[in-house]
Amino acid sequence: MRIALFITCVNDLAFPATGIAVTRILRRLGHTVDFPADQTCCGQMHANTGYRAEAMPMVRNYVDVFDSYDAVVVPSGSCTAMIRDQYPRLHPPATSVAARTYELSELLVDVLGVTDVGAEFPETVTYHPTCHGLRMLRLGDRPLTLLRQVRGIQLVELGDAEECCGFGGTFALKNPDVSTAMLTDKCARVRDTGARVLAAADNSCLAHIGGGLDRHRSGVRAMHYADILAGASS
Amino acid sequence: MSHPVAPATGDGRIRTPLPFPTAARAAVADPQLRANLHRATRTIRAKRARVVDEVPDWEALRDAGSAIKADVQRRLPELLEQFEASATAAGATVHWARDAAEACQIVVALTRAAGADEVVKVKSMATQEIELNEALEAAGIAAYETDLAELIVQFGEDTPSHILVPAIHYNRAQIREIFQRRMSDAPADLTDEPAALAEAARAHLRRRFLSARVAVSGANFAVADTGTLVVVESEGNGRMCLTLPETLISVVGVEKLLPTFTDLEVFLQLLPRSSTGERMNPYTSMWTGVTPGDGPQTVHIVLVDNGRSAVLADPVGRPALSCIRCSACLNACPVYERAGGHAYGSVYPGPIGAILSPQLTGVADNASLPYASTLCGACYDVCPVKINIPEILVHLRQQAPHPPAERATMRLLSWVMRNPRRWAAALRLGRVGAGPLGAYRERRTGARTLRRLPWPASAWTRSRDLPLPAPQTFREWWGKQ
Fold this sequence. Notes:
Chain A is of the alpha/beta class. Chain A has 13 helices and 8 strands. Chain B has 22 helices and 13 strands.
């Protein structure tokens, strides 16, 4: 099976560790993963902010770069939702590759049939299901299924977990007051858990929540769940 | 029907006077308002979830509701003509209003013709939309709201902030204060117990019901094959208005049509569970024209367009007309919960308002509303008629006028990101350029964060640290392998 990694623009620039983690997890499971260098961005920011015409070149580039692969793995629920939910409407030739594009937990659990990736992470962790993964991809508890198999991990439940953190792409910039109010509540719920790590399936949402947690010196680390799954058990 | 020009846009209380972010700022800063909204939306949300979960065919009901409404939208002109014929045959008089002003003129003229200088009102979104109370007042006619929450808002010289619970932004102590200040016959020892407040309103309204000669209502549904109008309510004040006065004037948006009487079986299950979280609402009133010797002997129906034809003309935005005004999306929305209804500027707040108001007025006149959402999708999940609100929000954002600086930035980013070589160079530049920014700290795994940036990036750093480009991009790591 030819698996390609779509790193996403935010991960490539600011969170390369998550891409490295996905590569390590898949290699540990005996798969090779390709990184086509001609990839750029899924175009979600443009499309969702009202710049569809400006998003289209990126949509077409994605199809050109990834159409020949059996599966594309994306460490972002939000970008996966853009590709799977919006691409077929925006650009019908994208329908086929969109259907073969998976968020990491979908690839592991549904396509590769793996729930134990042989990880170890001795920390208390709470999990925030990000909106697009939750409601557009219907990831359900796939990421949690993977996290539950991690050696040494102690998972604690997040209150009001399914409520949006207030990031919403350009929403955080266009509506800073409402976004901050939502962030404040989300950070409070995270701190209520007593966990030392907040995990999620999207580094953009995590940059927002983590940025809030850092600002208030909460001591809670925000991490993509792939970063947790990459830690091998000895 | 073909329109030689684009259908007219609507007017009335559907236009936000301030941009949403500006209007929301005051609400976010008001701890009392935040607490009231937090408590109220969570309570209704939990009730709704409980009663929806107990219906085994809820998803099938949603599909049925959505399909019936789509059918109505496909053949609205034909169904409206059928409704007019049925209602007229049953003894009602049907009037057509293109916009808010025309609808108000018709109601004022009918009230004057009935020789009345006051009307009692059933809670109605359509009359709030066309600002009927203001028009009646200007014509020297007193309009008395009889729904408890609408009465509170009217006494408070305020506007509704929620579709179902117009006074959601007040707590009971504030309501007691409003009653004592404005209700001349309020008991001197009025407490802030909900039962005491309701009883005071009941006693106050009783005289109004018995003396009023004209009532004004809206309708939740208008049934084409029978000419029947339906009002769904909790308090019974609506039924008083619908049965006691001699003349009844019902103001109804043209999208309220249902093809057949049996379609009500779907909507009378969807509506109460979605709105109040009840299995069935206490009062469902139906009236079909005039029944001699029983109820109002003169019945007028004012069918209002006010921008709805313009919404209908857009195949992507059109499902907004399926809305049955249950307000489940308001109660599910984390943005509504923080910003409150007034920030949306329209009688239709929350997620449905963010797609309906800009479509009724034209997007340019309500340009901030399509952005009043994180696209989290909670509204779509709870909508009883499956309106894909996030999809329509994105659709309307394409039509919104964009600030020139934003447009330039987005175009530049698109130019860079559409080309792999340019994108790789930009990543390198970003990574290298972030180095001298200096003030970063190593706080998260592999991420460096910045605490303070100048405008416009200050919108981000006001409340959260900003991650900086990593010392090595992913593609650089990959290249070194």
